[in-house]
Fold:
Amino acid sequence: MKHRMAAALLSLVGLMVATYLYLFKIGIVGTMVCGTGACELVQTSRWSRFLGVEVSLLGVLGYLAMLGVSLAGLQPVLQQRRWPATALLLLATGALVFTGWLTYAELFLIHAICRWCVASAVIVLLLFLVAFYGWRRGRAS
Amino acid sequence: MAAAPGGMKPFYTALGVVAVAGLGAIGWMALRPHGSVAIPVDVTVLAADTAGFRGYLLGSATAPVEVSEYADFQCPGCQRFEMMQFPTVRRQLIETGRVRWRYRDFPLDAIHKHTRVAAHAAACASDQNKYWEMHQAIYAGQPEWENAGDAAGFFRRYASSVGLDVGKYDECMKSARYAGRIQASHDEALKLNVPSTPTFLIAGRLYSNGLTSDELKHLVDSLAPAPATP
Structure:
């Protein structure tokens, strides 16, 4: 169950990062702790919205979903069930693909790197690896 | 094997610690002293605030007509003028040497909470000789920052996108050193009885009903060659 614990902790850290980015986007945080101005450039670019929804809000919802699934999978009644691992892997895969697109946009369309986005991308990658490991382990047992 | 409920305690403790630390960090970053920018209103204007400064100028010093625009960065009418009329005015009248444009801040603080910060952000860009680029970026971005709780981050982004040294820009915003200049411009508009924004002062007369580029051209045609407003 350690992989689900790791997934829950990673999701919580990701949730904090996404919440910070969303608070900036709705104007609650004035200037970001970023250092270069690139965070504002990325966060207010046209790629900071997806289908009319703030990408940071999608991040908050995505991390919340992964946190919820991870915590659910840790409950005694669900620890031996396979669906939490599958659901977590699906969510993490979606997050990884989406994050890949956003990183591409940063590098090649906006030409600026937001350190908080990089942090989120690393968290998503780790979440995917943990989720994949958990899913493989469940399949083997 | 299912984890024993007792074995979960360290995990939930760690989860709680991460949650508290994360929320604390977000709170600190949101509320830290430099997390936002505030430009004081109704400051005492010192002689140094306006020494040699009569507004942001665009165009030839020998242009026969001078147009002074009294405007507010957060006013929708000013934004429409900037986006829809000013490019034509610039091309037809300013770049041809017929008009010298003088932009004056008239921040309407009572109804536009970000206008003073916007005016100061543009003033800080003038330090780096990018006033008009920043001016245009702030107006172009008005729809995205006008309803924000705090617009400083948007202006910082524009500063970055127009090529300002963001470190110097931050220092300028933090110092609020142009608060007096903005106040002087505001007071000048009040003294002239500028009724609304945008209002144009042309050859001693105020025009406040939203001139179009065509109307401005007709006015200039009727005035030129006129002596520049002192």
In short: The beta strands of chain B are 56-58, 65-71, 99-105, 199-202, 205-207.
